[in-house]
C-alpha cells in the first residue's frame, strides 16, 4: 500500500551486518541474510528524523544476490587488549525501500509541528542529498549510500523467484516507550519478533510494529518530554522548509 506521505529510496554499500542476536553471545557476529526492520528504520532516521513523527517501513526489495563474507576482526576487549573474532558480513548489498510516517501520538507537546507537507518535503530533499547524517548498514563499519528511486522498478537478482523464501524466526525491532501504540506496551521497552517471507521480485513486506504478536518486555521506560527549553526543532527553518 502506498500512502500520501510515502518515500522511496535505494540504499547500497560494500558490506552490511544485520546482526543475529543469537550469534553475539561469544563475541562473534553473523548477519541475517536480509535487513531487519529496525536497521532500515535507523537508516531513514539518519536521513531525516524529528520526534514529531514515527517512520514505518512498509517494504524492502532485495536487489543484489545475497552473498556473505567472513572476516577476522580484532575488537577491543572489555578488560583491555584485543580479541580475535570472526564476523560474517553481507557483501555488495543494494535495497529498495518504501516507507511512510505517522504522527507520534505519545507526544502531544509537539502537536504544533504536525505539518505533513513540510515533513514530507524535507524527507524527500534529504533523500536526494544522501541523508542528514552518516548512513550505516547495520553497524558503523558498514558505510551505506542513499539515493532516490522508484520502488519495484529496475532489474533485481530475484525478479524471477519461483515461490517464496521463508527466513524463520527473526528479530523485527524495538518499541520504545515514546512510540508504543498498544496499552500493554506503554511505559516499557519491548523487543519484537516475526517470521519474514521473501516474495516474488525479492520483496519483503513488513508488518506494523504493533502487529508483531511475538514480543518481550525488557524493562520499564519513561518518555522524555520535549519543550521550548530542550528542543528548538519546532521553529527550525519552519518557513523555508514548509514552502520548499
Q: Overview of this structure, please?
A:
- This protein is mostly beta strands and 244 residues long.
- The protein is 12% helix and 32% strand.
- Strands 1, 2, 3, 4, 5, 6 and 11 form a seven-stranded mixed sheet that branches. It has a three-stranded antiparallel sheet with strand order 8-9-12.
- The longest helix is centred in the middle third of the chain and has 13 residues, at 116-128.
Task: Provide a compact summary of the structure.
This protein is mainly β and 244 residues long. The protein has helices at 37-47, 116-128, 238-243, and strands spanning 7-16, 29-30, 53-62, 68-73, 85-103, 145-148, 165-166, 170-175, 188-194, 197-198, 203-205, 214-220.
Average the pLDDT over all residues and give the rounded result: 89
Count the beta strands: 12
Unreliably modeled segments? 240-244
Share of helix, binned: 10-25%
Computed CA radius of gyration, to the nearest angstrom = 19 Å
Q: In terms of structural class, how would the helical and strand content be classed?
A: mainly beta
Strand content: 25-35%
Amino acid at each position: 500500500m502506498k500512502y500520501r506521505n510515502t518515500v522511496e529510496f535505494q540504499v547500497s554499500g560494500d558490506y552490511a551486518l544485520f546482526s543475529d542476536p543469537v550469534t553475539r553471545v561469544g563475541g562473534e557476529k553473523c548477519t541475517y541474510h536480509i535487513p531487519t526492520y529496525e536497521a532500515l528504520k535507523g537508516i531513514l532516521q539518519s536521513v531525516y528524523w524529528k520526534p514529531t513523527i514515527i517512520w514505518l517501513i512498509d517494504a524492502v526489495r532485495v536487489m543484489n544476490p545475497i552473498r556473505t563474507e567472513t572476516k577476522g576482526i580484532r575488537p577491543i576487549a572489555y578488560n583491555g587488549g584485543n580479541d580475535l573474532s570472526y564476523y560474517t558480513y553481507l557483501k555488495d548489498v543494494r535495497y529498495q525501500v518504501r516507507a511512510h510516517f505517522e504522527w507520534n501520538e505519545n507526544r502531544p507537546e509537539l502537536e504544533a509541528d504536525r505539518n505533513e507537507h513540510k515533513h514530507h518535503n524535507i524527507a524527500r530533499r534529504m533523500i536526494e542529498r544522501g541523508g542528514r547524517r552518516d548512513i550505516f548498514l547495520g553497524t558503523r563499519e558498514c558505510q551505506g549510500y542513499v539515493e532516490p528511486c522508484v520502488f519495484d522498478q529496475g532489474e533485481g537478482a530475484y525478479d524471477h523467484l519461483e515461490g517464496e523464501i521463508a527466513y524463520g524466526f527473526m528479530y523485527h525491532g524495538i518499541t520504545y516507550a515514546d512510540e508504543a501504540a498498544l496499552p500493554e506496551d506503554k511505559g516499557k521497552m519491548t523487543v519484537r519478533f516475526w517470521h519474514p517471507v521473501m516474495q516474488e521480485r525479492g520483496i519483503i513486506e513488513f508488518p506494523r510494529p504493533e502487529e508483531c504478536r511475538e514480543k518481550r518486555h525488557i524493562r520499564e521506560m519513561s518518555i522524555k518530554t520535549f519543550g521550548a527549553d530542550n528542543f528548538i526543532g519546532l521553529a527550525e527553518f519552519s518557513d523555508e522548509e514548509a514552502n520548499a
